[in-house]
Amino acid sequence: MCQVGEDYAEPASEEPPPRQPGREQKCVKCKEGLPVVVIRAGDAFCRDCFKAFYIHKFRAVLGKNRLIFPGEKVLLAWSGGPSSSSMVWQVLEGLSRESAKRLRFVPGIVCIDEGAACGLSPEARAKTLAEMKLILQTVGFPWHVVALEEVFDLPPSVLRCFAQEPVETEGAYKAAVDSFLQQQHVLGAEGAGDSPSLAQGEEQLSWPCTQDPQNPQSPDRPPTAAQTEALSRLFDSVKTLTAKEELLQALRTHLILHVARTHGYSKVMTGDSCTRLAIKLMTSLALGRGAFLAWDTGFSDERHGDVVVVRPMREHTLKEVAFYNHLFAVPSVFTPALDTKAPEKASIHRLMEAFMLRLQDQFPSTVSTVYRTSEKLVKAPRDGCAASPPGPRCLLCMCALDIDTADSATAFGAQTPLHLSQTQPPTPPPTAPCCSAGMGRVQGCCGGARPCEREDPRACVIEQLCYGCRVNMKDLPSLDPLPPYILAEARLRSQRYQRPLCSGSPGGPWGGAPAGPLPTQLLPQGLHRAADPGVPG
Amino acid sequence: MTSPRGSQGVVGPARTRALSTSGRAAAQAPGSRRRLGPEPSGSRSPSTRFRLFSSLDRAACVLLRRSLPLLPRSDPAMPAPQCATCHKARAALRRPRSGRALCGACFCAAFEAEVLHTVVAGRLLPPGAVVAVGASGGKDSTVLAHVLQVLAPRLGISLRLVAVDEGIGGYRDAALAAVRRQAARWELPLTVVAYADLFGGWTMDAVARSTAGSGRSRACCTFCGVLRRRALEEGARLVGATHIVTGHNADDMAETVLMNFLRGDAARLARGGGLGSPGEGGALPRCRPLQLASQKEVVLYAHFRRLDYFSEECVYAPEAFRGHARHLLKLLEAARPSAVLDLVHSAERLALAPAARPPAPGACSRCGALASRALCQACALLDGLNRGRPRLAIGKGRRGLDEAGPPRDGEPERAPAPEAVPAF
C-alpha cells in the first residue's frame, strides 16, 4: 500500500506464498491447536486463542481508558446487528466472571425500532420486535424498546448540553475502584446484597423479579398511526439518501440520549467496530465534519455533557466480529436499514463503504491505517484557541459550531445561501456574488436588529447548525415535518441570541459581527454573537 | 431565477441536457462510458482503471465538446433563464457551487473576482511582488496565469512563467510547446528548468528505469513531486521571484486530504489545508490562488476565455495512488455536488495531536534548502538514486543515509500535493 513509512509494494507479491492451512500449521499463539480463523495478515488462531484474543481486546479497551466507573449505570445501544450483539454478549460474559476480573458496571439495553423510517410494514416490524424481545429476555438485563416515533414526544431539553465537571483524574478512578471493592467486601461479609449489582459469588447476575425490566413509560403499546405517518412524511420529504441517513442518525442519538437521561444512565455504549469507524471517519470527512472527527470516531464522545458515549468495540474488525459470532453462536437479529439494497452510488455512506472495502481487498491495511490516523486526532479547535469561551453548539449534532472566521477558505462562497431570492444583488463589483448573497442574509438578520424569526424561521434554524448539518438541511425543502422539539429549541435559542442584539450591543465575548452597517468585507456567518451567560454548554 | 431543473452545469434544452448530464457523468466516472479499452469495473489492475479515469483534462475536453452546442438555443417549452447578474444575456451555464445561472462574461468576471478576493483576503501576494507562476501547460496553470495577468494591474504584481521539464518523453515536451505558445501570446518571460540540468542528469524516464524491475510499483510520482518542487524553487530564484504560485484547485485539495487519510500521513494532514506556506527558513512563500475554485469552474473559464492548453495525462499517472482518491472524489461529487468544498472545509479544520505534527524545519546540510531533517527530501532521493538504491529515501527509517531521524517520510518543503500527477 502506498503508505507513509512503508515500502511501496504490492503486498501480494511481497509476502511469502501463503501456506496452505494443512495439518502442519498450528495456531500462532498456543502452537498446539488447529487454527480455525485467520486474523490480520496471516495470523491463524485456534478457537480458544481466538476467544481469548477477542475478549482481551474488549477488556483492554475498557480498561485502558478508565472511563467506566464501578457501579455506574451503562446503557448498551443494541441495534440487533452483529457488532452490537457481540458487544452485548461480551458484557454479559464479562459480568458473569469471577469477582477479580468481573466487569463492574450496571448495564441496561436500549433498542430503537426504526421500521417507520425504513418503510417497513407493521407486520414486519412486529415480527422483528418479537425476535428482539426473545433475545433480550435471554440476556436478562433491563431493556427498553423505543420506537423512533417517540421523537415527536421529546422535550427540547434533549438538545441541551449539561456541562459536567471535568473528567476525573487517574487518582480518582483508582480511588473509586478501591472504594467499590471495599464496599463489595463489606457487603459480602454481611451476606446480604441490597442492590443486585453488588451480589457477589454468583455466576449469573440475577435481577430481582420485582424490578420490571421494561420501561414503564413505554409499555407494549405500539406508536400511534399518526406518529408513524408523521415520521414517514418526514423521511419522504428528504431528497437524498445521504441526508436521510444523517437525519436518522441524529434522531436516534437524541432518542438514546433521552432514554439514558430519563433512567439515570451516565454512559452509553455503542457497538461501532473498527471497520465501521474507519468508514465513518471518511464519510464524515466528505460530509464536511472534519472538525468533529475526534468526537465522531474516538473512544469517548462527551459532547452531550452528562451522558458520555463510549465505543468499546472500536478495535475489533468486522471480520473478527463475524467470526466470533459464528463460532460462539451469538444471537443477532437482522433489521433492514435505510440503505439496505440501495445501489452503491445512492449515498455518500454507501459509496465510502464500498470504496473502503474494495480498497481493503487490494491493500489489506487500509482500515487499520485509517483507524490509526483517527487515533491521532484530538478534540480541539485547530488553532488551539482553547482560551476562547465555549461557543454556541449545533442544534442537531451538538458539536461546537465550526463556521467561524471570515478568512477561512470555505467561508468565502462555499455557504450557498438557501434563499437567493431573498437577498439583494451585490452592488459593489469587487465583491463576488456568492459571498454577498451570504452576507445579505446575515445582513437581513442582524443589520437591522429585526428579530429574524419573524422574517424567516428556516434561516434561523440553519444559522444554528454546523457546516455538515447545514449541507444536510439543504436536502430538506421544508422544516415543518421535523419533530417539534427541534423547532422549539431553535426558536428558544434564537430568542436568546436576539436579545443582546436588539439592545444594540456590538459584539459578544467572541468579538462577533458588528450590528452596524456592513462593510463590504466578509462577515462571519452571524454566529459569534453575544450570548446570554446563562446559556449552558 | 432558479429554474426547477436545478442541477449544475450547462443550461440548455431538456433533450441535450440529458446528454450533458451523461457527458458530465462520463467525465466523472469515466469507467463505463469511455471509448478505450476493456470494462474497468471488473478489472483490478490500476493501469487500465486509471488510464480510463483519465485525467480531468480529457474529461475537460469532453465537457467542452458537449457544452459548445449547448450554448443558448431557444426552446419554447423551457426558455433558458437570463443571466442572474447582468439580466441581459441569456444564461450559458449554471455555476456548480451556487446553482446561479450566468452568462459567459459574467461567469468569468465572477471567477476573477473570487480569485482576487482569495488573494487579497489572504494577503497572499503583496503589491510589488514578483510572482513565479508554475506553468505546466495544463488547464490549471493556464487559467492561473491568465487570471493573474488580468488581475496584475490591480494587485500590483509582475509575473514570470517558470516551466519545469521533468524529461518525460512524449508528454512533457508536448506540454512545453503549449507553454511556449502561451508565453508568446501573453508576452510573459518564460524560463524552463530541466531535471537533467539541475539534478545531475536524472530525468524522470531515467528514474523510472532505475526504480523499475523489482516487481514493485515504481513510485515515480514520489520522485517527480519532490524534485519538481525543488526545480520550481530554483527556477523562481533564477528569475528573481519573491513568491511562487501554483494552480492547485479545490479538487486537488480534496483529493489530497482523502489520500492522506488513506495513507495514514498524519504529518501532511497536520501541515496541509491552509492557503499555502508562508515560506519559512529562506524558502519562497507559495500559494494557490485557485484553491477555492472547483475543477469544473476552471474548465469552464478556460472554455469561455478560449484558452489554449495541453490536456493529456502523464504517462506515469496510472500508477499513482492519487488515482484512487480521484476516483472516489468523482463518485462523491456525483452523489453530492458540494462534496469537494465539504472536503476542503473538513481539511481546514482537522485537529491533529501535537505529537503527529512534523518538527520545525531547519536547513538541509547539503543544499541549504528547507528540511525537517538533516537532509532534505530531494537530496535524500537523489542520494538514493546515485547510489543505485533508489528506494533508499522512501519508506521507514531511511536506512543507509547518514542521519538518524524519526522514521517518517515527511516532505521537507511545503508540499500541498505530495503524490500529485504533475500539476496542470
TrEMBL record, chain A:
Keywords: Cytoplasm, tRNA processing. GO terms for molecular function: nucleotidyltransferase activity; sulfurtransferase activity; tRNA binding. Residues 505-514 have a biased composition (Gly residues). Residues 1-24, 503-537 are annotated as: Disordered. Its main location: cytoplasm. The keyword Cytoplasm applies. It is found in: Cytoplasm. Pathway: tRNA modification; 5-methoxycarbonylmethyl-2-thiouridine-tRNA biosynthesis. InterPro entries: CTU2, Rossmann-like_a/b/a_fold. The keyword Glycoprotein does not apply. Plays a central role in 2-thiolation of mcm(5)S(2)U at tRNA wobble positions of tRNA(Lys), tRNA(Glu) and tRNA(Gln). May act by forming a heterodimer with CTU1/ATPBD3 that ligates sulfur from thiocarboxylated URM1 onto the uridine of tRNAs at wobble position. Belongs to the CTU2/NCS2 family. This is Cytoplasmic tRNA 2-thiolation protein 2. It comes from Equus asinus (Donkey).
